[in-house]
Amino acid sequence: MGHPFPIREIARQAGLSEATVDRVLNGRGGVRESTAREVQHAIADLDRQRTQVRLVGRTFMIDIVMQTPERFSTAVRAALEAELPGLRPAVVRSRFHFRETGPVRELTRTLDRIARRGSQGVILKAPDVPEIGAAVAGLAEAGIPVVTLVTDLPATPRLAYVGSDNRAAGATAAYLMGQWLGDRPGHVLTSLSSGFFRNEEEREMGFRSAMRARHPARALVELAEGQGLDATQYDLVRAALARDPQIRAVYSIGGGNIATLRAFEDLGRECAVFVAHDLDHDNTRLLREHRLSAVLHHDLRQDMREACHIVMRAHGALPPAGPTLPSAIQVVTPYNMPAPVG
């Protein structure tokens, strides 16, 4: 009867003495058949529960490294902290490395420091550039699993990607935009924070492809490199509106939505349809005020829970699982907003 469990643990599970369990396991006889079955059932129960047995007392230090506006990093931190109690009996401690913008070398220095210092895992949101790929390779060589969050780095040795299907999200935005604009004339502004984040590139491709197929006459005006920050987004949007008087709808891929709406208002222009991403604190307020038409949202708590589980599996603390599936895309309006995280 092969098993990995100590006699003491089996005895506790079966409610029998260690001596009785020892006799059953070693076939010494003098034990009722029903008692032998109880020992077998106890071993089977322990096998099913081995995840919890092996997690007791385990502490995982995970580094969360993100280049993203503060509104999104705040949402990620809140989602992770809300999930921590559900990860027990494991203890997950986290170190946060957040930056809104800056040169790539600062981000790679952070990743290189983690590789030298050590970590049980890294959850990463970063631009898809060669320097980041090299830093992820360094983490992998150091035995540190990397899970990409929201935006993927598929050409790197990252362990898994957690987030939504960004092409499908872009196509969903196009479907909503077409339904709500209908036959009304007007151009659509697509706004990216940067062309180096794969998730934004994929959203834009999904949006453009679906719009071309369903509404080929609708012109799209692309805006990029606002970094998702209101301070830089305002001037970019205002200049785009001044150049093109027919812009009357927005698909915001990268954020900066308060500034985008202010640019419309300051020029006395109507934004007939506005589709955005992520229920951060800015978009939550704008949606409640009916200034956004819809927000495409995915459950960050589920994403952070899955990312932590992937790190635990990498260390053998959880049993293997199948491929990580994309997070479900939720279309959120002012009338179906989920409860706040935490």
Helices and strands in order, then pairings?
Blueprint: H1 7-14, H2 18-25, H3 33-48, H4 50-55, E1 59-67, H5 70-83, E2 91-99, H6 104-117, E3 121-125, H7 130-141, E4 146-149, E5 160-162, H8 166-181, E6 187-191, H9 198-214, E7 220-223, H10 230-243, E8 247-252, H11 257-266, E9 273-277, H12 281-288, E10 294-297, H13 300-314, E11 330-332
Parallel strand pairs: 1-2, 1-3, 3-4, 4-5, 6-7, 6-8, 8-9, 9-10
Antiparallel strand pairs: 10-11
Helix pairs in contact: 1-2, 1-3, 5-13, 6-7, 8-9, 10-11
InterPro entries: HTH_LacI (IPR000843), Lambda_DNA-bd_dom_sf (IPR010982), Peripla_BP_I (IPR028082), SBP_2_dom (IPR025997)
Organism: Streptomyces zinciresistens K42
Keywords: DNA-binding, Transcription, Transcription regulation
Give a short synopsis of this structure.
It comes from Streptomyces zinciresistens K42. The protein has 342 residues and is an alpha/beta fold.
Structural write-up:
This protein folds into three domains: 7-48, no CATH class; 55-164 and 300-326, Rossmann fold, CATH 3.40.50; 166-297, Response regulator (Rossmann fold), CATH 3.40.50. Helices cover 46% and strands 17% of the residues. It has helices at 7-14, 18-25, 33-48, 50-55, 70-83, 104-117, 130-141, 166-181, 198-214, 230-243, 257-266, 281-288, 300-314, and strands at residues 59-67, 91-99, 121-125, 146-149, 160-162, 187-191, 220-223, 247-252, 273-277, 294-297, 330-332. Helix 1 (7-14) packs across helix 3 (33-48) and helix 6 runs parallel beside helix 7. Keywords: DNA-binding, Transcription, Transcription regulation. InterPro entries: HTH_LacI, Lambda_DNA-bd_dom_sf, Peripla_BP_I, SBP_2_dom. Residues 7-57 form the HTH lacI-type domain.
